[in-house]
């Protein structure tokens, strides 16, 4: 990156009729750099940087699609990861199993809905697809970002996130279940009349090593009026028929 004054001087010299080679020699830069500045590629990049830097709902007041954010928050808390890349731009990645192409598409739509000024791309890995988006402001939208694994640090929502979670518990639970949960059939054996009979019924399970994330899931289920219980230390179960039917209204099987 060259100082702004170097770029301005090079553009002035170009405007006076000096060749790119002459301008490069006078300014101590490469001919290619002068050509980019003169043809406007540098200005395009700067405009792009300004666009990326003014697209944050938290920093610049841009309207936020709260339903899309609630769903994306659930995905992030389960399988999301934020990493710092070049030029102080952050990458938010969501890892979705290839078994569920509909989930991959839903994740891409959520990223686009929350940060419409940033492009969304996909990268294939063994057995899964990384859906990712770049922005300098992802940590503004997900202040839970930090070093280490999520279950090894406190996961506490900011006040504005709490308000969204309270207003949109359905999309939040859907994101959590789409990341670290599933809807499947449970088979149990019961003795009836001296014989063992098998019964099968649908249920939801949400599994996460973070006690804080389990609490957030439980709070959202409470807001939806869904009965649940802590099946194991790291697992929430929704198994009552009415509760499963209620949760089906917001989640349903992965697809």
List keywords for this structure.
Arc Repressor Mutant, subunit A; 12 helices; 2 domains; Endonuclease I-creI; 255 residues; alpha+beta
Low-confidence stretches: none
Order of helices and strands: HHHHHHEEHEEHHHEEHEEH
Task: Give a short account of the largest sheet.
Answer: 4 strands, antiparallel
Question: Which range best describes the helical content: under 10%, 10-25%, 25-40%, 40-55%, 55-70% or over 70%?
Answer: 40-55%
TL;DR of this structure?
By secondary structure, this protein is an alpha+beta fold. 47% of the residues lie in helices and 24% in strands.
Walk me through this protein's architecture:
- With 255 residues, the chain is α+β, with helices and mostly antiparallel strands.
- The protein has two domains: 50 residues, Orthogonal Bundle (Arc Repressor Mutant, subunit A); 192 residues, Roll (Endonuclease I-creI), CATH 3.10.28.
- The protein has twelve helices and eight strands.
- The strands form two sheets. A four-stranded antiparallel sheet has the order 1-2-4-3.
- A hairpin with a 2-residue loop joins strand 3 and strand 4.
- Helix 2 crosses helix 3, helix 6 crosses helix 7 and helix 6 runs parallel beside helix 10.
- The model has no long low-confidence stretch (mean pLDDT 89).
SSE map:
Elements: H1 4-15, H2 20-27, H3 31-39, H4 41-53, H5 57-60, H6 66-79, E1 80-84, E2 90-97, H7 101-114, E3 120-125, E4 128-135, H8 138-141, H9 159-167, H10 169-180, E5 181-192, E6 195-207, H11 211-224, E7 229-232, E8 235-238, H12 241-248
Antiparallel strand pairs: 1-2, 2-4, 3-4, 5-6, 6-8, 7-8
Helix pairs in contact: 1-2, 2-3, 6-7, 6-10, 10-11
